[in-house]
Structure formats: structure tokens, C-alpha cells
Amino acid sequence: MTTSVQMTDLSTQNSNFTQSVTITEGQRGGFIEVLATVGSIVLMILTFPISVFICFKVVQEYERAVIFRMGRLRSGGARGPGVFFVLPCVDNYCKVDLRTVSFDVPPQEVLTKDSVTVSVDAVVYYRINDPLKAVVQVANYSHSTRLLAATTLRNVLGTRNLSELLIERENISHTMSNILDHSTDPWGVKVERVEIKDVSLPTQLQRAMATEAEAAREARAKVIAAEGEMKASRALKEAADTLSESPAALQLRYLQTLNSISSEKNSTIIFPLPMDIITPFLNIGSSKRS
How is the protein disposed in the membrane (predicted)? Predict the structure, then answer.
């Protein structure tokens, strides 16, 4: 709910502060602008064989060129890919790369919602969606996007607990991507993806978490061992009840035990002595004491 409110506020601010790109080439210029344009055309005609190498520019498939004539944005949008024409001395152009660019967000010291200080770094992937806005609306779209990504990382992680930060990385990355995309849309920048790379915890906190995990594992081990002992005692009780019902079964069990011992330890000699023979002597000893 908090994330949706933040995104709504950001989109409202963007709609209030965004200015549309105005094409000013058709506006009437001053006498100096007209004179400079005519002089540039004359100079191009006089130096025709050489001016061809200056007037014709080439942009690659992944580039676009934004042209300004006497400081005014030319109509027709961004040029490219291919060849475009500029007048010497009066035309100026800026190349914009449309390929996806990635950069690392420096590690940020973040105080989480449950008052734990962690260091988090991330990587952001973005590309230019509108070359005109990227040149006209912002002075340096790359630097501005980097600063905004670092600020957004701190703001988003400050609203999460440490457990959420460690478990819900994908959800946090998606939230950051949406916020950055809405914020950079007036600059002609499209944020494609945001990924959290690493979360560094303080050493004392790591030790405390390791101790807690070790204690939890020991507790589970004791419970499992106790359950095993309980099941084993039940099985032994059932076996004893079964053997007590048939004396021959007990004698066969004696023989199986002797067989297993003789196969493993051949030098050991065992003489089984039935308890029925020893019982009278035990009774005599107890009667004398009394």
C-alpha cells in the first residue's frame, strides 16, 4: 500500500513538472541569425568539394542525432540511423546512444525498519527511450539517473525489515524498477531492470544470527533423537512381547545371535546359559539373606 502511494505521488509530481519538448526552428529569428545562416550556405557553396566531408554526418544503427540550428531545436525529431546534413558553423548536434546501459549503484548504508544498519549495493539497466527529452530536458541524464537510483535504493530499503530485505529481494527490485521508471520518464530514460547484488551485515549481527541458527539446529537434533529413542523403545517392547509368547522363538533368537557373532569374530567362544538354570540359585541366595 505504501509503495503504490509513493508511485502515485511520483507520477503526480512528474506530470506537474514535466515540460514538453518545443520545436523552435520555425520561429522567426533575428537579423544576425539570418545573416549567419546565409553566410554558412555561401561558405558551403564556395568550398563545395571540401564542405561535403563537413556537412554530411553519419550515425550508427544504435545512435540518434539531435540537431540544433543557431541554438534552436530543429524539427523532424532525432536523425538516424544513416546520413544527415548539417550547415557548418550554425548547426550543432548531439549523439545519443540507444543501447541498454548498466551501472553499479555504490554500496549504501541503510537503516532498516527494525533499526539494523546494512550495506546494500545494486545494478541498474536503462536505455534512452526519447532522444529529444534526454538532450533537452536534463543536463546529464546518466549522472542524474545514477543519483536517483542511489536515493531510491535508500528510501525503499528504509521501509523494510531485515528479514524482508533478505527474503524478498525480487519484490524489492521490482518496486525500485517501477519507481525509477516513473521518475526518469520525463528525461526520456526507460529503466528496464534493477537487481540487488549484495547485502552486507555487521559482523556482530552475523555472529548472533549464526549462534541462533546453531541453537535451532541443536534443538531440532535433540527432538529427532528423542523421537528415535521413543520409536526404538516401542519396537523393543513389541519384540519382547512377541518373544515371551513362544520360548522356542527366544531360543531361535539365541542361535541367530551366535551365528552373527561367529561370522564376525571367529576367535570368540560363547556358551549360552539359559536363565532357567540360574533362577533357582538366585532364589537360594535371596532366602539365605532373609
Answer: Single-pass membrane protein
Q: What are the pLDDT digits (tens) for 143-189? A: 999 999 999 999 998 888 888 888 888 899 999 999 999 999 999 99
Examine the domain organization and report whether 82 and 27 are in the same domain. yes
**Three-class SS state of 263:** helix
Quote the pTM value: 0.64
Same domain? For 139 and 157 the reply is yes
Task: Name the percent of the chain in helix, strand, coil, to the closest 5.
Answer: 55, 20, 25
3 state DSSP class of 102: strand
Domain that includes residue 250, residue range: 246-289
How do residues 229-287 score in pLDDT, each as one tens digit?
Answer: 888 888 888 877 777 777 777 677 777 777 777 666 566 666 666 666 666 766 665 66
Give the list of residues 6+ apart from residue 264 with CB closer than 8 angstroms, or none. Answer: none
> Coil, helix or strand for 99?
coil
The residue with cell 526507460 is: 190
Amino acid letter, residue 95 = K
Instruction: Tell how strand 56-59 and strand 82-85 pair up.
Output: antiparallel
Phi, psi (rounded to 5 degrees) for 202: -60, 155
Residue 190 has which C-alpha cell?
526507460
Q: Who has greater pLDDT, 226 or 26?
A: 226
Residue from 7, 163, 176 nearest 105 by CA? 176
Amino acid of residue 64: R
